[in-house]
Please model this.
Amino acid sequence: MLNIVLFGPPGAGKGTQSEMLISQYQLVHLATGDIFRYNIKNGTELGKLAQQYMDKGQLVPDEVTIKMLNAEVEKRPEAKGFIFDGFPRTNPQAEALDALLASKNTSITCMLALEVPEEELKMRLLKRAEVSGRADDANIEVIENRIAVYNNETAPVKSYFDKQDKLSLIDGTGSIESITERLFKAIDAKL
Ligand code: ADP
Model:
């Protein structure tokens, strides 16, 4: 299996680049943010719980997120591989993901970490708010909180995969196509 963690701060372009990777490598896309938003839209218990955190730019608790992600992986036994987008966002989530994949006799192939300067992230998110309808994009304080949560809780996950020699840092600036090219190159080097 080819299992990719697409990593980066809010606004780094994970969603956009996931689309390119899915079609190139026939992967199943699991984006935790999208799954939470789907649950919010449908008024599920999980959605109600997640919304309280998401609206403030905080992380949904690990226990809830890990349980949901495990269930999504279990739903796709036919998958040739996964692209994890927005997960893992904490070291406990990374450990849970490793354990889940090990139980299926597979593992993470690589983590691709998109790097974008903070000022550009803020501009991209405010611009996205005009079309995304996402409350967490529309408010600069919430955006700044999301970036702070990323720096404090999520960025350490890079070291977790670096220790396994699986981390590739990718310049996330420039045209969408040029970033896609960089990602393809990094993946192909691991195949
Ligand atoms: P972005 O990366 O652009 O901020 P996402 O759509 O990936 O947006 O996530 C939106 C929100 O959903 C996060 O701010 C967080 O509240 C919640 N969320 C998504 N993934 C996770 C996760 N793995 N763990 C905890 N919370 C998460």
Summary: The radius of gyration is 16 Å.
